[in-house]
Specification:
Elements (H helix, E strand, L loop, with lengths): L1 H35 L10 H8 L1 H32 L4 H15 L4 H11 L4 H8 L13 H24 L4 H9 L4 H29 L3 H7 L6 H10 L6 H33 L1
Helix pairs in contact: 1-12, 2-3, 2-12, 3-7, 3-9, 4-7, 5-10, 7-9, 9-12, 11-12
Length: 282
């Protein structure tokens, strides 16, 4: 009797979660899939996918999103590896403070982040005006409202996120392994090449995938900074679903499917690469 009562309570507790998953995850996803295969005049059609992969405008949006996501993820993963290693070498108090700041900055994205960068480095930003008055040319050729500006803003939240995800991995590298390799005559390079990197690589590859998906799905930051002036996939989907002039939700759904499949493909490639890495290093 007691077991049945406990199970009933668990079922009741799961009802809100189930409603949340169905209402905010499954139904929107099914709606996107159905809309993407619905023609302009109704009925089943592939015309929106044909438009997405044949019109240069949408191909450029896909290309720009892939390049920005890859570049910002590479910068984030490289910086995150070094910062995460440095965190493991400082005192516990300093580590806690750095992790707290990293957690805060990793979640500081969207419109507030774009607004902060506009205040600091925009055309009339604080640092832009100060450096101009001081005669410094550090930011003379820098344009926040460009590709490089977008990369800078993306990197701001990619690096702390990579740091948070990577630093626990370093604790898997035991000090005894370093001492044993040293006693056997291995150099520091050989230790990192043969022992440490094989441990770090799966975590680094998994973190890169998360950073890539994070950048691909970023919308509010890019839109607040550049509006519709830069052709990104997330911005193009938003304009097609809730544009000011005209909307084409079916085409927007097809592009959303492309965005989702790109993330799934990146996960699949990552898994294939890691299998090969483990086999070669094993």
């Amino acid at each position: 009797m007691l077991k049945k009562r406990v199970d009933f309570k668990l079922i009741l507790a799961l009802i809100p979660f189930t409603i949340l998953i169905i209402g905010f995850e499954l139904l929107p996803a099914i709606s996107v899939v159905v809309e993407s295969f619905t023609g302009t005049e109704g009925g089943f059609s592939l015309e929106h996918y044909v438009s997405a992969f044949t019109k240069m405008f949408y191909l450029q949006a896909i290309k720009n999103s892939l390049i920005i996501s890859a570049v910002s993820s590479c910068i984030g993963i490289i910086a995150g590896l070094f910062i995460a290693y440095a965190i493991t070498k400082v005192s516990e108090q300093t580590r806690s403070r750095v992790l707290m700041i990293s957690n805060m900055t990793a979640n500081f994205a969207g419109i507030p982040l774009a607004f902060a960068y506009i205040i600091l480095l925009g055309s009339n930003g604080i640092f832009t005006i100060l450096f101009d008055q001081w005669g410094l040319t550090i930011f003379s050729g820098f344009n926040l409202y460009s590709w490089s500006g977008l990369i800078l803003v993306y990197v701001y939240f990619q690096i702390p996120l990579a740091t948070l995800l990577l630093y626990p991995t370093y604790y898997g590298i035991r000090e005894e392994w370093r001492e044993a390799s040293s006693l056997l005559g291995a150099s520091t390079y050989q230790f990192w090449r043969r022992i440490a990197l094989p441990i770090l690589l799966p975590a680094a590859a998994g973190t890169f995938t998360i950073l890539f998906a994070n950048a691909m799905g970023a919308y509010a930051t890019a839109y607040a900074l550049l509006g519709g002036n830069y052709n990104l996939l997330a911005i193009r989907i938003g304009s097609l679903v809730a544009g000011d002039v005209f909307t084409r939700p079916q085409l927007g759904s097809a592009l959303a499917m492309v965005l989702g499949l790109t993330m799934v493909l990146s996960l699949w490639i990552n898994e294939r690469m890691m299998r090969r890495v483990r086999r070669d290093l094993g």
